[in-house]
């Protein structure tokens, strides 16, 4: 019996739970800091909050954080590692991930995503539905690459950056930490830390 704990009972958590089932996890329990007000997430039970999860660490073979906020997801993931948890990485069976790529702890790669050779992805990152990451990219910790995003080759993306749905990143671009790239934006120039960019071509707002 493989038992997985998921921290974060949300819509994103439901997707993560289904991927876990497809990857062979037999029993899945949710934990959420809004418990006990939140007691279920779809067909899965919510058994407690973060504190409760830590107290039950021996009950699980693995744990993953399914929280949309990059900073919260990363911080919670590092907290659980410090408590001795085995932070699980989940890759949907219908994703294509090169054997030459490196996917960090606590990442989730969703259906239809493609990760090409010599990509490095940091811990607690999300590569969402049908996103593509081409060769030789370096992705920092706690990044969210949204649905349908296309990242060309040799791109560097800093920690805690969010690439909005359908955005595109030109090859050899460097994007800083904690950047937000708007939905459908096309990034053709380097972006400094902390900026929000939108449009075609993407410009700071």
Average of per-residue pLDDT values: 97
Order of helices and strands: EHEEEHEHEEEEEEEEEEEEEEEEEEE
Query: Which runs of at least 5 residues are low in confidence (pLDDT < 50)?
Result: none
Give the helix proportion (percent range).
10-25%
Structural class: alpha/beta
Number of helices: 3
Characterize the main sheet: 8 strands, mixed
Q: What is the alpha-carbon Rg in Å?
A: 17 Å
Strand content: 25-35%
Strand order of the largest sheet: 6-9-12-15-18-21-23-24
Strand-helix topology:
Elements (H helix, E strand, L loop, with lengths): L2 E5 L3 H12 L4 E5 L8 E2 L2 E2 L4 H6 L6 E4 L4 H13 L7 E2 L4 E2 L4 E2 L4 E2 L4 E2 L4 E2 L4 E2 L4 E2 L4 E2 L4 E2 L4 E2 L4 E2 L4 E2 L4 E2 L4 E2 L4 E2 L4 E2 L8 E3 L4 E2 L1
Parallel strand pairs: 1-2, 1-5, 6-9, 7-10, 8-11, 9-12, 10-13, 11-14, 12-15, 13-16, 14-17, 15-18, 16-19, 17-20, 18-21, 19-22, 21-23
Antiparallel strand pairs: 3-4, 23-24
Task: Write a concise synopsis of the structure shown.
This protein has 205 residues and is an alpha/beta fold.
Plain-language structure description:
The chain is an alpha/beta fold and 205 residues long. It has three helices and 24 strands. A hairpin with a 2-residue loop joins β3 and β4. It is globular. The mean pLDDT is 97.
């Amino acid at each position: 019996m493989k038992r997985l704990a998921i921290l974060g009972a949300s819509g994103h958590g439901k997707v993560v739970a289904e991927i876990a089932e497809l990857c062979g996890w037999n029993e899945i329990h949710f934990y959420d800091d809004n418990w006990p007000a939140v007691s279920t997430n779809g067909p899965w039970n919510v058994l407690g909050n973060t504190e409760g999860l830590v107290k039950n660490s021996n009950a699980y073979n693995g744990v993953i954080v399914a929280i949309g906020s990059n900073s919260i997801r990363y911080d919670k993931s590092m907290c659980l590692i410090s408590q001795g948890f085995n932070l699980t990485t989940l890759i949907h069976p219908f994703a294509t991930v090169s054997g030459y790529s490196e996917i960090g702890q606590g990442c989730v790669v969703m259906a239809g995503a493609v990760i090409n050779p010599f990509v490095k992805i940091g811990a607690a990152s999300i590569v969402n539905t049908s996103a593509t990451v081409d060769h030789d990219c370096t992705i920092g910790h706690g990044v969210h690459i949204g649905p349908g995003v296309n990242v060309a080759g040799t791109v560097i993306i800093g920690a805690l950056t969010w690439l909005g749905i359908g955005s595109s990143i030109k090859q050899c671009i460097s994007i800083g930490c904690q950047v937000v790239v708007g939905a459908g934006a096309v990034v053709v120039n380097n972006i400094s830390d902390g900026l929000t960019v939108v449009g075609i071509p993407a410009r700071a707002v």
